[in-house]
Amino acid sequence: MTATEHVILVDENDKPVGTAEKLKAHQDSLCHRAFSVFIFRYTKQLEVLLQQRAPHKYHSPLLWTNTCCSHPRPGEEVIVAGQRRLYEEMGIKAILTAAGRFHYIAHFNNGLTENEIDHVLIGNLEETAFSPNPDEVAAFRWVAVDDLKIELREHPQHFTPWFNQAFEIALSKHKNKNS
């Protein structure tokens, strides 16, 4: 990881228009490219792997979210970036496929703003053991998709602002891919 991370600035059609330092993009609400990875597995039912963000994250600390999320670096393809961060955050190597993308804006109490074109990536667990990075992840858990839908309805405040929309895209693509 570089000392100062940069993000790809994009227009509303996800066309690159430049780069910016990551923190500045969040301070100035600059639209930039991001991704959200969802890892699924089948046990008795379909489950998804969630992570709880580390307590020192500059926004959404200790909220539950998808398996991993981040930003591609300038010049880096989204799927390659997703695979890189999945390994850096969760210690998982998996083949990822694109499920779709969406634009969202979320304002945080600390003055930062997420203004992102979020690419949703999905994959299935290929490893039986993995080791999350404690600098990135406070906790993780497998949850049945049906149970997660109930939890999202009853306790939406426990999840990141982008999670619900990204989850719907990931779940829809996963069902179509595996039907």
Task: Give a structural overview.
This protein has 179 residues and is an alpha+beta fold. The chain has a domain at 33-97 and 119-177: Nucleoside Triphosphate Pyrophosphohydrolase. The chain has four helices and nine strands; from the N terminus they run E-E-H-E-E-E-E-H-E-E-E-H-H. The strands form two sheets. Strands 3, 4, 5, 6, 7, 8 and 9 form a seven-stranded mixed beta sheet that branches. It starts with 5 loop residues before the first strand and ends with a helix.
Write a compact overview of the structure shown.
With 179 residues, the protein is an alpha+beta fold. Helix content is 25%, strand content 37%. It has a domain at 33-97 and 119-177: Nucleoside Triphosphate Pyrophosphohydrolase.
Radius of gyration: 15 Å
Largest sheet: 7 strands, mixed
Query: Regions with pLDDT < 50 over 5+ consecutive residues?
Result: none
Mean of residue pLDDT values: 93
How many helix segments? 4
**By helix and strand content, what is the structural category?**
alpha+beta
Strand content: 35-45%
**Alpha-carbon distance between the two ends:** 38 Å
Shape: globular
SSE inventory with pairings:
Layout: E1 6-10, E2 16-21, H1 22-27, E3 32-42, E4 46-53, E5 64-65, E6 68-70, H2 78-90, E7 97-107, E8 113-124, E9 137-144, H3 145-154, H4 163-177
Parallel strand pairs: 3-8
Antiparallel strand pairs: 1-2, 3-4, 3-6, 4-5, 4-9, 7-8
Main attributes of the structure:
Nucleoside Triphosphate Pyrophosphohydrolase; 25% helix; 179 residues; two-stranded antiparallel sheet; seven-stranded mixed beta sheet; alpha+beta
